Amino acid sequence: MTIRAYRTQPFETTHENRVFDTLLKELQRAWGNSEEIVLLLGNFHCVGSEIDAAVVKRDSITVIDFKNYGGAVSFSENGRWRAKDVAQDVEIKGGRKPNPYLQIRDNKFALLNVLKDFGTWPSGKPPDFGHISGMVVFHRPIDFDDRQLPPKIASWFHVVDFDHVVERLAQITSRAIHLSNRDLEAVTTKLGIPSYTPVGAHMNAAIAVEVVGVDDESVGSGLPGKNRGSSTKEVRMPRERRLEEAHFVCRQGRNVVDQNDGTFLTSYWVMRPEHIQPGLVFALHEKKAESSYLQGLVLSLTDVRTERTSSGMLRRRVKLLVQKTPESLPWKGRGSGEKGFVWR
Question: Given this model, what pLDDT does residue 216 score?
């Protein structure tokens, strides 16, 4: 499962920033090797409601709120919640609401109303947004009896501590929600939440990059060519570096597949999968000196292949689904061989 994280800005408290980053790591550890896409959205607003997080996957949408408490937790639909242990007996607020249930309920319907206004979904099958789930996640261990929840609330509302959050997310599913990978890409594009990489994920990371010469026959094919020689160097990647444009020489649209719906599938290109984000500008050129003949915005990463070069290094190639755009683009960026990358 490809885990993709998005966040508008840092949270206002240290514990929320830490628990969001830890949740991202746990999702990657649990589902990172699957082929499906899972979205982790953080610290965003919908119709005036501030939402801590949401996890969106093929068969579920779950709104999450973080609480920095532990102990025995008591539930009330309209009244006060409390957390009790040997060291504390405190009331648990729900932001501006009297309790977390009312807070999550409002956040659920705020997100529901925004998603309903999306219009046409790429798959042509809009989900039933009434099946959005809600979850209160406590940072510390809790003792909570699910039998406190009335049946109609228990069908969509969950209370867990952090040790059980991934297990519960895996269990949550709905027959009324069936999101394709393109639908999932549309969620982040339409919500307008920027992609997020935790500070330090790229910081001081030494990445071995192989510079490979290719013969004329393979240039632009998107396929391995004859190796004229290679060298390996270490490159320090700036933290939170983002790829904005990718330009390739691809003569006569070799191995490009038009989908007859305004999109096309690329061939396999040497790129790091973690640099692929929705909205990435992708352009194909006959020559560097010529404007692109086919261009668009990346909708999704559809496949990754790993190969070993003659020098023994592993190299990954990606295949992309791209939404066509009409305007030709000039060549931009720098890169080895006949490719150009523009970074921010």
Answer: 30
